[in-house]
Amino acid sequence: MTVIVRDVRSEDAEGFARARRAAVPFMLATAEQCAFDWARAHPEAHARPLVAVTEDGEVVGTAQQGIAHDSPKPGVGFVNVYVDPAHLGRGAGTLLLRAAEEHLAERGATTLYSWVLDAPENLAWAGRRGYSPSRSAYFLRLDLASAVLPPLQAPPAGVELLTAEDFAADLRPLFELDAVTTADEPSDVGSDLADFDHWRATTWEHPLFDRALTTVAVVDGVPAAFTAAQTDGLGRFGTGMTGTAPGFRGRGLAKLVKNASLHRARAAGCTEAFTGNDTENGPMLAINKWFGYQVAAREVRHVRTLG
Question: Most CB contacts within 10 A, which of 98, 142, 170, 297?
Fold first, then answer.
């Protein structure tokens, strides 16, 4: 069956999300989220989402690509290709990657990063196309319906637990906490989160972002730690980021906010919890193990230099 690659259309959103969930079931994906991301991509990212479709219009593969506009390094691009496992072997991944590389090279990318699921066939596929392995990360899963969560405890003196909704009147403190914790997140590329308006439009307004389940620890009036919650309306809860500002680390605040968020998620009807960790991020891996998360899969970030 012939497969063609083209730019996404608005009517592709449901198929795009379905193919992503089939390829990486540990990542939340909805049609609303896809359409939102396409419409609000930063102009400097030169984003160009692609789909591989069959002759009858079924979406069987996807590619997300762009320039890392918030990276302090110039010329850094990213491309992540996913193909529905039921449609492997038709060349969809190769066509998607080729089109993405051409687009990014034309926009000045000299280094490309790509996440690859850790399976022998996937790693070999990436290697044949000039990509070399770099850092790795885990997808973690918790059966929230049956998990025995640590009991809720009263916060220590001077610490208050709030939700993201409590910051609706003034988002700056929450943005600044996100920025300072993102700055030292393990990464090959790095990120300088400085555009408040873009953050508000793409993070605060994101359809997966759950303001009621996102939990923030405030110490003596200062936002100090948070866990960002995502939900997809299908009973799945994801932790997009858990971080503590440098001056407040070592106090157990990450455990505190995450535990509160997990309890709230279960009370809201969520039955599965997902998160991701860099394999070298020992402290956060220990916290997630303490909650009962188990490794569901591993992915390896690959890099290619365009000549």
Answer: 142
